[in-house]
Design a protein that fits this description.
Structural class: mainly alpha
Number of helices: 21
Strand order of the largest sheet: 1-2
Shape: globular
Helix content: over 70%
Radius of gyration: 22 Å
Length: 519
């Protein structure tokens, strides 16, 4: 069973190579990439079933034992992230295929898009199974290099400007991450995470704190926590709809995953939880206030993305089994729902020619299917019972109430306020874009709408287009998946709780990598 682990990285890379060889044979490229992601999904499901039933798996690449060789580790958290990521990547790929069939290759040139997309998938999967910091860095760099191409695809002015910002910020984060790895190796003589965990207590606490903070800043940029999230709202919305959806759903969660893994394995004895809670509080509040001020649907969703990262940092900062379990469930919920909302926003843009609520209306009558596809995940993200958004938030608040302090209570209050403001912002989108009749758009006057911020560089409407059945079908399938998180909340939450138990202290992780002990 261990031999299946490297397949989650090898299959996308082989798919990328095959897509390049296929050149401009569009249908062959589509077939190759879809087969590769379906195979990864199947392997990920098998790994999840296996690790949940038997226990974590480890693969020593090339037969070189740790800490000298590359170690790939799959526990419940890794396996769950692999499954969710594979579902999202496959859905977005099919959505982009539908868009390409309808519009041609102007938005996503097939000869470039498919190989790059598969490389991005390989980087995401590699990050989730990395057992040492340098391999985690390699995973980040693989997905970031691919994302540089995807975010500027199409070559429009706004995309190039946003891409420059994204690339510069990502490079700064990567340099900080690499410098942190060099300092850790210099201080501890290893980059293996299990061995670092054992040796970390041997160095001076002030050095531990420096290393800890450097990694948190590097991962915080990637996860888009406040105040390191300034780059996201202007970067993601300018990309093509499929790229925006996969970026919003997955890439920031890779940063959250890295924070969770390092906090529970490398720095389990280093207490910066209060500082993380302050960061979580500010991320929630500042992010949702930014969302409330937006007129553009995609920028609004980008700000809600930032604000809801705060819930995940809150759960990590608690450091308890209940908090970690609730966080894992919330990550699964947010990846699914945020991706679905961005796909629905892509359909809105095609139908109305714009995503500004100041310029569109009557979508409920014009396209009731798109209205439903936006409405359901919007309620879910807003935390309306009984959806998974409500279940995840309730789990986080319940875990917080088990360790009462003024800071925890402040975060619970901030979380409740963020949920209400999320619902308010999305309800305003529904009221203006869907419920308001189209003939009232020009004559509708409101001082509130005049104060809303439009997307920079996107003040002109685009051509209205019908949405192909494949694009609508994929979005509908993602809505079904998001609803399934509620229908099967019991088993999924139980699985997330068991994953949280695996993260309760680094001992389990160390014993897995070094069953005979570590020096």
């Amino acid at each position: 069973m261990n031999a299946l682990i490297p397949l989650v990285v090898m299959l996308p890379l082989l798919g990328a190579a095959a897509a390049l060889i296929a050149g401009k044979r569009q249908r062959l490229q589509v077939i190759v990439t879809v087969i590769a992601l379906v195979a990864v999904l199947a392997v990920s499901v098998v790994l999840l079933v296996e690790v949940d039933a038997v226990g974590p798996l480890i693969m020593e690449v090339g037969g070189w034992p740790a800490p000298f060789g590359i170690v790939l580790v799959v526990d419940r958290l890794s396996a769950l992230m692999l499954v969710v990521s594979a579902v999202v990547l496959l859905a977005v790929l099919l959505f982009s295929v539908g868009q390409g069939m309808a519009d041609g290759d102007s938005e996503t040139p097939v000869s470039i898009y498919h190989p790059t997309y598969m490389v991005l998938a390989a980087g995401v999967f590699n990050a989730f199974i990395a057992g040492d910091l340098f391999n985690l860095y390699v995973g980040f760099e693989i997905l970031l290099v691919a994302s540089y191409v995807l975010i500027t695809m199409g070559g429009t002015g706004p995309r190039i400007r946003a891409g420059v910002t994204y690339i510069v910020v990502s490079l700064i984060s990567s340099m900080l991450f690499l410098a942190s790895i060099a300092m850790i190796y210099g201080a501890l003589g290893t980059v293996n995470m299990a061995q670092i965990s054992v040796r970390m207590t041997e160095i001076d606490p002030s050095v531990q704190l420096i290393l800890h903070v450097m990694l948190l800043i590097a991962f915080g940029i990637k996860a888009a926590v406040f105040p390191l999230s300034f780059w996201l709202p202007d970067s993601y919305p300018t990309a093509p709809a499929p790229v925006t959806a996969v970026f919003a759903g997955l890439l920031t969660k890779v940063g959250v995953y890295a924070i969770m893994r390092t906090e529970t394995v490398l720095f389990a004895e280093s207490d910066v939880n209060d500082a993380l809670m302050v960061v979580a509080f500010l991320t929630m509040i500042v992010g949702i206030l930014g969302a409330v001020a937006q007129a553009d649907i995609k920028r609004l969703l980008s700000f809600t993305l930032i604000s809801h990262i705060g819930y995940m940092i809150f759960g990590i900062a608690m450091g308890t089994v209940a908090g970690l379990g609730a966080t894992i469930y919330y990550i699964v919920h947010h990846i699914t729902v945020q991706t679905t909302l961005f796909l629905a926003a892509g359909l809105v843009e095609r139908q109305a020619g714009s995503t500004s609520i100041n310029r569109i209306g009557g979508l409920l009558k014009a396209s009731p299917v798109i209205a439903v596809l936006f409405f359901v995940p919007a309620l879910n993200l807003g935390g309306i019972p009984p959806f998974s958004g409500f279940i995840g938030k309730l789990g986080l608040f319940t875990a917080g109430a088990q360790q009462p302090s003024w800071l925890v209570y402040a975060l619970i209050g901030a979380g409740a306020l963020t949920s209400l403001l999320t619902l308010y912002a999305l309800a305003r989108v529904w009221n203006m874009a869907f419920w308001r009749p189209a003939d009232e758009v020009e004559k509708y006057e409101s001082p509130l709408l005049e104060e809303l911020t439009e997307a920079p560089g996107e003040n002109t409407d685009r051509e209205m287009k019908n949405s192909p059945r494949l694009m609508i079908g994929v979005t509908a399938a993602m809505v079904v998946v998001s609803v399934a998180l509620t229908v099967f909340a019991g088993p999924l939450y139980a699985l997330s709780s068991r994953a949280g138990e695996n993260l309760n202290g680094p001992e389990n992780y160390v014993r897995l990598v070094f069953p005979e002990g570590v020096e």
